[in-house]
């Protein structure tokens, strides 16, 4: 938590819904969760799950159709000066140069602008600040968009698939910069991605969306502790009372990913899943029972 933000939650959603058009097409529906301040949160889910919609709502660019969302303890539109947002399509002014774009960022954020970090991120990998935005590659535009967002020195960074078009070196460099900024300033980062393995080392909080609803949310360590990959003899391994996310029988062997409800039988081999295994099991089994509703009293205290 930063000294300027005494609110314990970066985001709080209550029965949040967003519909597009007049038909009953809900991009998000009945979403409730709390994201404690200071966390690095992975937002994952299949295509069309509602990740970009949630980030745009949190940035105050879209109003909810129902329910409420607060950003840094206030209405998202009122939190904009403290929020950095990098949208999937990275909108920038094509006629400006990189240097002019950063100058615009400084002019728009005179009280908070951090020229050092903005210049360092924008000109990494030798990007020439005199180049026009329209002449940049997709990855170079991402670099400039991240520079603008970080230069704002935000309390909350909302990043919609920020790493998607970066080369491996740029990914490594920019992820390290994001993490060091988060650690140094207590910035909350909310980052959507399809590359779950990449999030495992950097994120400590998960928000898994499926079909516009929250499937799983909480501290990643708590979620991994609450689940188990189990193996046991198929005929003597009743999975009840555990919640089955995924199960498979091969010959006489049962393999399952469960949410533990009780101690496991001694003849079962149980191991802690990786984040990727947990997420993939939920994505492969969208009909598995969702997590009981997550409340701050269940371990999300800041
Ligand atoms: N402006 C819009 N008008 C109409 N429907 C929209 C609009 N934006 C999003 N949607 C719909 O809302 C749903 C959620 O879209 P969203 O872009 O939030 O998903 P996503 O999880 O970010 O997907 P992806 O992983 O493909 O980026 C989709 O069904 C999409 O078609």
TrEMBL record:
InterPro entries xrefs: AAA+_ATPase (IPR003593), ABC_transporter-like_ATP-bd (IPR003439), ABC_transporter-like_CS (IPR017871), ABC_Transporter_VariousFunc (IPR051782), P-loop_NTPase (IPR027417)
Chain ranges of the ABC transporter domain: 11-236
SUPFAM superfamilies: P-loop containing nucleoside triphosphate hydrolases (SSF52540)
Pfam families in the cross-refs: ABC_tran (PF00005)
Gene3D superfamilies: P-loop containing nucleotide triphosphate hydrolases
PANTHER family from the UniProt entry: ABC TRANSPORTER ATP-BINDING PROTEIN ALBC-RELATED
Protein name: ABC transporter ATP-binding protein
């Amino acid at each position: 938590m930063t000294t300027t933000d005494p609110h314990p939650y970066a985001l709080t959603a209550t029965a949040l819904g967003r519909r597009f058009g007049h038909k009953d097409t809900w991009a998000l529906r009945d979403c409730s969760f709390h994201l404690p301040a200071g966390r690095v949160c992975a937002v994952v889910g299949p295509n069309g799950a509602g990740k970009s919609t949630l980030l745009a709502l949190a940035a105050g660019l879209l109003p909810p159709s129902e329910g409420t969302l607060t950003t840094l303890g206030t209405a998202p539109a009122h939190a904009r000066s403290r929020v950095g947002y990098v949208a999937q399509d990275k909108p920038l002014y094509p006629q400006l140069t990189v240097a002019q774009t950063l100058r615009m960022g400084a002019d728009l954020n005179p009280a908070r602008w951090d020229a050092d970090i903005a210049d360092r991120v924008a000109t990494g990998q030798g990007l020439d600040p005199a180049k026009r935005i329209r002449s940049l590659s997709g990855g170079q535009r991402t670099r400039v968009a991240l520079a603008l967002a970080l230069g704002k020195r935000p309390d909350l960074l909302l990043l919609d698939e920020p790493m998607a078009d970066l080369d491996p070196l740029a990914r490594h460099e920019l992820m390290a910069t994001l993490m060091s900024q988060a650690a140094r300033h207590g910035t909350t980062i909310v980052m959507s991605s399809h590359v779950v393995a990449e999030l495992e080392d950097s994120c400590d909080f998960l928000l898994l969306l499926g079909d516009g609803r929250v499937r799983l949310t909480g501290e990643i360590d708590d979620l991994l502790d609450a689940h188990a990959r189990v193996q046991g003899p198929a005929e003597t391994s009743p999975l009840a009372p555990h919640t089955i996310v995924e199960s498979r029988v091969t010959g006489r062997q049962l393999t399952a990913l469960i949410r533990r409800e009780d101690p496991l039988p001694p003849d079962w081999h149980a191991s802690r899943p990786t984040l990727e295994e947990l997420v993939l099991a939920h994505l492969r089994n969208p009909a598995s029972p969702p997590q009981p509703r997550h409340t701050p009293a269940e371990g999300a205290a800041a």
